[in-house]
Design brief:
alpha/beta, about 25% strand, 7-stranded mixed β-sheet
């Protein structure tokens, strides 16, 4: 894990606190796998950047073709301090697949799939 001030890079992601106050995870194709160990690195990075406080997160998958296993997805869905999650995808097909995934994986917090970045951010910042 490389740490630079408020940015942490793992094998397949760049994690930072966005200037609007939410956590942003950008997934990237790096040739490395997105396994449970990688999920745990991302979870640890999120905890470090947020100081263990509750947070909203934007997951940007538009630069990645990674397809994490259901075990990885479950580990990420079970994160304790996550209170809202917007997932940004690059196509309608990925949005449909993402919505199926959201129905299969039980989450304690609201999650939604978007193809429009600004719509995702606006939804994240809405007061509940």
């Amino acid at each position: 894990m490389n740490t630079t001030s408020s940015i942490i890079e793992t094998d397949v992601s760049r994690i930072e606190i966005n200037d609007r106050g939410f956590l942003q995870i950008t997934l990237m194709d790096t040739g490395k796998s997105f396994d449970v160990a990688e999920a745990n690195r991302q979870i640890a990075a999120a905890y470090e950047l947020t100081g263990g406080r509750n947070y909203k997160v934007l997951v940007d998958t538009t630069q990645s073709s990674l397809s994490p296993s259901s075990e990885v997805k479950k580990a990420i869905a079970d994160v304790e301090h996550k209170i809202k999650e917007a997932i940004l995808v690059n196509s309608l097909g990925n949005r449909i697949l993402g919505n199926i995934y959201l129905k299969i994986i039980n989450r304690r917090y609201p999650s939604k799939i978007f193809t429009d970045r600004e719509a995702a951010i606006q939804w994240l910042l809405e007061v509940e």
